[in-house]
């Protein structure tokens, strides 16, 4: 029997849990003092929430200053302005289905990052999720997940010796049938999948005895070892589920059940540091809203399910005394296009907002409210403001205590920390990326425009993107002295339309539009 085939077949015997790793004997993993210190340095838990399909950020958080433009581009599905949930001091209206998440914001437990994505946005579900899972460039193909790369720095011998006395519990758990690629390492995935922690059954080990000294015996040894591993994790999860508890009533939805089980396992003492949950259905090409009522429809139902589950989860953590240990983060493969379609839906777009929730976030908005222009191209998406790897790196640095240089080495060489965390006992950062200012002139332009950057800053990068998120020009700037620094961008060979200028340095980042018009 092939090892990959065994792993597949094993899930048939234990449908609530699957284990993906290469064969190795169960035992104690010898650890260096450094690795032991890294493991003991934090009891923090990260809960990822994947919004499968590509969430419509403009319907989730409506930019009120651009409401008139949105009425023009997507009036058939835009919620009425007087029905949106207002946030004091912010020109953003939350979708009416997000009442619980609004309360988290008011309690200082929600951080919103505007315009999250990556250069050269890919609009394929599968490819874009590969990019989000791996933390790679759009043109790179990396089989490891971004959390897998981090976990390799802590568990460099994995899966050899796992589970064992030192690491008896799963390192990561995906709540569902398929293990998340975010936790994929070189040798194996650091995660296991669990549908129902209360319904796990041990696998039967089969006939005991000495195995023959041949190929068949080697494969049989492998099968026995994998069964041992699976049963050890089954025992640990079952114990935590039995000892754990939930102190609030959760909504009756599959996603809410996932979060309820996560809270139960954490309260039951399971030392798993990463959980991956998901909610599907966000690929809203049609019936995103019901005709004649933009407050109903598929997207409203999904946001309501998301909202109620996260609100209950956060309240449960508070009641259990665990909210200082747990950070939640949403992510989706892309946003939706600015224009709606004729099927009362939206098509694959570019950047979108991302939520971080928990008692330890720096509550508020990071980035600029998306700019919606009077005229947009048929497939235009929301402009990129924040590279998703800056969010990932910030979580690794400020939540799990990874050094900034290490993040740059194994994840993203251009990483800049964002001011997203800092309450509770998360790791403080001496320097976080802030705001920069620059001008674009003339705007509109016919062939070229000039970007003028002000201030005394370290080296940075100036990028120009088209309406679909493709990076068409990049200028690397060395350290800038005090004063004004002009850079000329020539787009004479590009078609008329909307372009977006993004500047990022250690001093901050910003995005502005530049509109090309015909010279006639």
Kindly describe this structure.
The protein is α/β, with parallel strands linked by helices and 520 residues long. It has two domains: 3-410, Alkaline Phosphatase, subunit A, CATH 3.40.720; 438-516, Immunoglobulin-like (Sandwich), CATH 2.60.40.2550. The protein is 27% helix and 22% strand. Strands 1, 2, 6, 7, 8, 9, 10, 13, 14 and 15 form a ten-stranded mixed β-sheet that branches. Strands 19-18-21-22 form a four-stranded antiparallel β-sheet, with no helix packed on it. The chain is globular and about 85 Å long. Residues 1-16 and 19-41 have low confidence and may be disordered.
Residue share in helix: 25-40%
User: How many separate structural domains?
Assistant: 2
> Helical stretch count?
12
Major sheet, described briefly?
10 strands, mixed
Beta strands, count = 22
Unreliable stretches, pLDDT < 50, 5 or more residues?
Answer: 1-16, 19-41
CATH topology of the largest domain: Alkaline Phosphatase, subunit A
User: Architecture of the largest domain, CATH level 2?
Assistant: 3-Layer(aba) Sandwich
Q: Which of globular, elongated, flat, extended, rod-shaped describes the shape?
A: globular
The CATH class name of the largest domain reads Alpha Beta
Structural class: alpha/beta
Radius of gyration: 24 Å
Q: Tell me the span between the first and last alpha carbons.
A: 71 Å
């Amino acid at each position: 029997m092939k090892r990959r085939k065994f792993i597949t077949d094993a899930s048939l015997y234990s449908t609530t849990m699957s284990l993906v790793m290469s064969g190795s004997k169960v035992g104690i993993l010898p650890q260096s003092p450094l690795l032991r210190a890294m493991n003991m340095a934090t009891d923090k838990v990260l809960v990822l929430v994947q919004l499968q399909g590509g969430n419509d950020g403009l319907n989730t958080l409506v930019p009120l200053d651009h409401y008139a433009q949105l009425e023009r581009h997507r009036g058939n599905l835009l919620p009425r302005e007087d029905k949106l949930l207002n946030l004091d001091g912010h020109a953003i209206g939350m979708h009416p289905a997000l009442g619980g998440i609004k309360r988290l914001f008011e309690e200082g437990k929600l951080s919103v990052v505007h315009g999250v994505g990556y250069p050269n946005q890919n609009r394929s579900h599968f490819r874009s999720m590969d990019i989000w899972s791996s933390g790679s460039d759009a043109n790179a193909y990396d089989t490891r997940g971004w959390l897998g790369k981090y976990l390799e720095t802590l568990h460099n011998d994995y899966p050899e010796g796992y589970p064992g006395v030192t690491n008896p519990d799963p390192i990561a758990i995906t709540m569902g049938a398929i293990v998340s690629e975010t936790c994929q390492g070189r040798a194996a995935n650091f995660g296991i999948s669990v549908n129902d922690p209360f319904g796990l059954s041990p696998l039967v080990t089969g006939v005991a005895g000495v195995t023959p000294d041949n190929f068949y015996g080697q494969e049989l040894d492998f099968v026995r070892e994998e069964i041992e591993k699976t049963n050890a994790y089954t025992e640990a999860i079952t114990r935590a589920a039995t000892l754990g508890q939930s102190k609030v009533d959760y909504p009756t939805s599959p996603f809410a059940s996932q979060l309820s089980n996560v809270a139960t396992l954490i309260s039951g003492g399971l030392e798993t540091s990463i959980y991956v949950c998901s909610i599907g259905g966000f690929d809203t090409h049609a019936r995103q809203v019901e005709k004649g009522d933009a407050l109903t429809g598929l997207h409203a139902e999904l946001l309501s399910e998301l909202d109620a589950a996260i609100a209950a989860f956060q309240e449960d953590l508070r009641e259990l005394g665990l909210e200082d240990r747990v950070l939640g983060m949403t992510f989706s493969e892309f946003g939706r296009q600015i224009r709606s379609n004729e099927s009362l839906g939206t098509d694959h777009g570019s950047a979108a907002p991302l939520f971080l929730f928990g008692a330890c976030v720096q509550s508020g908005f990071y980035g600029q409210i998306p700019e919606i222009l009077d005229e947009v191209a048929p497939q235009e998406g929301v402009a990129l403001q924040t590279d998703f790897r800056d969010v990932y790196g910030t979580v690794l640095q400020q939540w799990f205590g990874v050094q900034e240089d290490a993040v740059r080495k194994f994840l993203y060489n251009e990483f800049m920390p964002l001011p997203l965390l800092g309450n509770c006992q998360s790791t403080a950062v001496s320097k976080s990326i802030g705001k920069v200012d620059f001008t674009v002139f003339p705007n509109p332009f016919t062939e070229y425009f000039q970007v003028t950057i002000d201030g005394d800053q370290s080296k940075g990068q100036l990028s120009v993107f088209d309406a679909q998120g493709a990076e068409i020009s990049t200028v690397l700037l060395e350290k800038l002295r005090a004063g004004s620094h002009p850079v000329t961008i020539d787009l004479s060979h590009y078609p008329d339309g909307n372009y977006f200028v993004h500047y990022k340095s250690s001093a901050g980042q910003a995005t502005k539009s530049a509109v090309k018009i015909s010279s006639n």
